[in-house]
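Q: What would this chain look like folded?
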Amino acid sequence: MRYSRRNIAWPGRGRTALTLLAVLPAAMACPWRSPREQWVLGAAVVIAVMLFGWWRGLHLTTIVRRRLVMIRRRPMVRSHRGCFLETGIDAKTTVLLCIRGPADDNILPLPLIAGYLNRYGLRADKIRITNRCIATGVSRTWIALTVSAADNLAALLARSSSIPLEHAAQVAARRLADHLNELGWVVTLGGPDGIPPLAARSARETWSALRREIMQGAGDYVAAYRLDIDDALPNSLDAVRARPASETWMALEIACGRTGLTLAAACALRTDAAPGGAPPVPGLTPQHGNHAKATMALNPLSSERLDGHTDLPDDLLVRLRWPASSLRDGRQWCLHSAGGRTGSKPPLARPGQHAPSGVTQLTGQMRQAHPGGP
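A: My prediction, written as structure tokens:
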């Protein structure tokens, strides 16, 4: 395997600080004549190797941690429809749009979509575009807009004392849908019922993939990858689309960072053969030991951000070509909202109408279990 700057696991500030705490006392003990000084030197070397050592783009400590977490998850079944419990002081809601484009031009206007991260006084936590394509060429495209209550507390309180998070997110998503409709796009069904599971309930997590045994000697493998955000991203996305697979999931996530927009991309491939040690396409980083969590995060209704958010390079969104599904599917236009990560909600309420029963306000601390969402 050829190594480049992309394969090297560069240490962060935390690792560097911990290493200096061990190396500086060892350096001060030079020339290490007494047994105690030699023990200090040996401990510093071991700590430096453990914190700085890496293999195939992962630090040794990360490999050990993922191995232990993976063992703890077994034999727990993970899938898009698995149970979920999320606790935190921040409430988030996700509104999902299923979109189809004209047959002659189905390239999504990414800069326009990114503009709805902060519009009409509401700041979205992230906007994610997800594609699912099967081997027959049939594809589906979703746009998910996630809004955080903590980021919009003042704006929500200005609208109502009850902090109408879901209603505000629905209004923002409806305006995005109307804007896309004016450009010739069609917004169709969105929601948990229309999202097929990526990983089967019987899948077993291994270091390199999620494996489901179909018959003796034959299996079904789902491997998740993170894409590098750089000037080569358009070529990497094209290579993933051209990669032979029975099912391909791709996600592009745009979020607001401290100094500007950030971007993350991920994909998952379902194949009949086990994936190799090296990534199938340049620019991909395998989610070794983390495939279950990574595939769950690919769910369009997930409120969790993708791994690898990087400051958005100049003009990258303009150069990216993200094809959406075509107009062959004739389902009716509809919006659905989901609270938390994988929950489901009834259709949106139109202006002047009350929200459907079951749509709740999210305030303060959220603790929700989602037993049935994908």
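The chain is about 25% helix and 25% strand.
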